[in-house]
Amino acid sequence: MYVYDDLRRDCCRLCRKGAVCGTIGRSLFGAHIVCFHLGPKDGAQMIVQGGMHAREWVTSLLVVRQAETLLREKLPIGIFFIPMTNPDGAELAQRGCERFPNAAELLRMNGSRDFRLWKANGRGVDINCNFDARWGRGKGNVPYPAPASCVGARPESEPETAALASFTRRLRPVITVSYHALGREIYYEFGQRGAALGRDRALAEAAGKFLGYRVVSGDLGSAGGYKDWCVSRLGITALTVEIIGEDKRHPLREEDLAGEEKNIMLPLLLAELVRGADGG
Fold it and tell me: What is the pLDDT of residues 13-44, one digit of tens each?
């Protein structure tokens, strides 16, 4: 189990070790969306985020481990780590709905007290379908609150989506990395062409080679995702990294991170590559 209380504990611990800790906003039910910053404050920056889908809470644990390990490294660019973009969802998937003020509605949506497969936020909106990138046109999208795939009332209708989008717009990072699970695949494409497509494919292939993951071309009907939005609206490289092989099944456990150790150093590899491409 890894929930918001665990992240708060780790935030205090990493701050004592030298990370700069903060928040990019709050969730629907008031939890801070915690971030850690490592490396140079000025110049190029990167965002690494996890925990967007509730049932994929192991990605939050992975991002915290990345930040803790990379505290010991000299980073060529600054990196913001956002381990738990959907803290309400993480709580819901692991502890159930009893603590939520809308528990009855959540039970109706889920059809069961077992929320371990829940992906959405505390209102039944899938954050990774709620960005302004072909919003509402994704394969499998639904317009009504649900455990997964609900697009919301409008792009950035959810406080978690709005917080991440606002932070990204202000920061203008050179690259973002979003952690999801399952599949050991990397996605990078969302309609970019020419030099941008070549740049993004090269970085995705470098990451794939480093991790031993398959690099997937095309958007495969994706829409409304953070990666999609970063590519189409900001024109920056954005990778979605799906950890853990398909021999595993949801609900995942902490033990399922075994074999994913190379991901700990992926942000450093990408930071070096984008810094080199920038002529630094």
Answer: 999 999 999 999 999 999 999 999 999 999 99
Return the active site residues.
242
List the structure tokens of 118: 């829940």
Quick check: helix, strand or coil at residue 186?
Answer: strand
Please state the pTM of the whole predicted model.
0.97
* Cβ neighbours, 10 Å, residue 145: 19
Q: CA-to-CA distance for 168 and 185, rounded, in angstroms?
A: 24
Rounded distance between C-alpha atoms, residue 211 and residue 84, angstroms: 22
Burial letters for 201-235: b for 16+ Cβ neighbours within 10 Å, e otherwise? bebbebbbeebebebbeebeebbbbbbbbbbbebe
| C-alpha span between 253 and 246 (Å, rounded) | 14
DSSP 213: P
Which candidate, 180, 201, 171, 174, places its Cα nearest to that of 128?
A: 180
3-class DSSP assignment, residue 185:
strand
pLDDT digits (tens, 9 = 90+) for 94-121: 999 999 999 999 999 999 999 999 999 9
